[in-house]
Amino acid sequence: MIILALETSCDETSAAVIDASKDKVEILSNVVSSSLPLHSKTGGIIPEIAAREQVKFIIPVIEKAIEECKLKIENLDSIAVTYGPGLIGSLIVGVETARTLSLVWKKPIVPVNHLIGHIYANFIGDPNIEFPAIALIVSGGHTDLLLIKNHGKIKWLGGTRDDAAGEAFDKIGRLLNLPYPAGPTIETLAKKGSPKAFDFPRPMIGSGDFDFSFSGLKAAVAREVKGQDLSGEFVQNICASTQEAITDILIRKTLLAAKKDEVKSVLLGGGVAANQKLRDEFKSSIANGKLSIKFFAPPKNLCTDNAAMIAAAAFYNYKPIEWKKVTASPELYFD
Ligand code: KG4
Ligand code: ZN
Question: What global pTM score does this model have?
Answer without folding.
Answer: 0.95
